[in-house]
Amino acid sequence: DPLKNIFKKKFGRPIHDCLPRTCHWYATCTNTPGSYACTCNPGYKGNGYYICVDVDECSEKPGICSTSNGWRGCKNLPGSFLCTCAAGFQSTGNSCTDIDECDRHFCSQFSICENHPGSFTCTCKSGFTGDGQVCADVNECALGVSNCHPQANCLNILGTYLCDCKTGFSGDGFACSDVDECAGEATCPAESTCVNTEGSYHCNCDIGFAVNGRRCMDIDECSEGACHSQAACTNLQGSFTCSCNVGYNGDGIDCSDVDECQDSSCDGNATCFNTFGSFTCVCSTGYEGDGFVCEDVDECNSSSVCPPNAACINVEGAYRCQCNEGFIQCPVPNHPSWQLHKAFQLLFEAETVPYCVVN
Fold first, then answer.
1. What Å distances lie between residue 215 and 118, 183, 203, 240, CA to CA?
2. Residue 183, Cβ neighbours under 10 Å: how many?
3. Which helix or strand (DSSP H or E) is residue 236 part of?
4. Residues in CB range of 92: below 8 A, 6 or more apart
5. Average pLDDT of the chain to the nearest whole number
6. Per-residue CA distances from 274 to 256, 278, 294, 336 (Å)
7. CA-to-CA distance for 17 and 10, rounded, in angstroms?
8. What's the main place this protein lives (predicted)?
9. What is the pLDDT of residue 233?
10. Which of 93, 210, 352, 354 has its Cβ near the most Cβ atoms within 10 Å?
11. DSSP strands (E only) in 96-151
């Protein structure tokens, strides 16, 4: 053997046992009687002494990784090979089995995982959006895609939403109807009327009352001049009355003066003067009194009523002067006593003051 001779010349002894680096580094040395043998390791081929090359099992042994066992292909390795499984499968040594990715929680907790041979799918649950492996909550309220009633409040929660009827409405949130508060829970003052509105109510104070906070207060119509200026106003709870003053006719809202002189109680010898709301009685000339009772004035009690040489005669409501016996009544036009008569007129402030002269 040439190698043995070379070895003998170099080391001074023949090779007859296995020493380090006797064989190729991918070979195994076996001692034999008086010699040795080098054999390439499994997966390698060559003479074992100075050459061992990798055996490509994948190309030299077609079908070594049969697809019938679930293998996808063969991968050559130094001194060996590896049967590879398709994506979604795992090796059990002799074959490939499906990987249940759903057990390994590849999907989001908010998705539905479906395992398939060699694969899986993730689908976000209702109320979420994404690719299944990442799912984000859908805010149905903000997007306006909820089925809440228009009179309901929408509350977004994880994966869904809640509908709650607004105050003044009742229902499950998907259907809401108006609550008639006036039929039950409304709290209106006694002096008001309850008016139901969409989702609420309000209290209308009755006529004669005005709202004051949450109360209905009586309106003092008298202070607002509801009656005529010539009427007496009486305020009542929620109302008022008007009564025309004495001397006026009407309903109190409108009052007109009564002409008492049309049917007065004045004396027959008095003159009635109508005034606003009343009247006065004035005794006629020649009478005295309060107008309701008038008595004749005896003018003859005054010594200056008649001129000299004349007697005073009292008559109803007046008097007359009568010349004494032996005298005649003047004036007579163009008589010498005419100028004296004019002087008596001025003195007694009368138009027909007689003057008595000697007959």
1. 78, 20, 10, 20
2. 10
3. strand 231-236
4. none
5. 86
6. 13, 6, 18, 50
7. 16
8. secreted
9. 95
10. 354
11. 96-98, 111-116, 119-124, 128-130, 135-137
pLDDT of 3 reads: 52
Cis peptide before 189 (omega within 30 of 0): no
Intrachain domains 102-178 and 181-218 with the same fold: yes
Q: Indicate the burial class of 80 (C-beta count within 10 angstroms; 0-12, 13-18, 19 or more).
A: middle
User: Does this model's pTM top 0.85?
Assistant: no
Right CATH number for 102-178 from 3.40.980.10, 2.40.50.1070, 3.40.50.1100, 2.10.25.10?
Answer: 2.10.25.10
3-state secondary structure of 181: helix
Q: Is the separation of the CB atoms in 281 and 291 below 8 Å?
A: yes
User: What whole-number distance in Å separates Cα of residue 116 and Cα of residue 186?
Assistant: 63
Mean pLDDT score, 326-339: 61
Instruction: Identify the pLDDT of residue 235.
Output: 94
Beta bridge partners of 207: none
Q: What residue spans define the domains of the chain?
A: 58-98, 102-178, 181-218, 306-358
CB 181, CB 200: distance < 8 Å: yes
Q: What is the mean pLDDT of residues 325-348?
A: 59
CATH 3.40.1000 fits 181-218, yes or no: no
Answer for the pair 231, 252: CB distance below 8 angstroms, yes or no: yes
Residues forming beta bridges with residue 221, ordered by sequence position: none
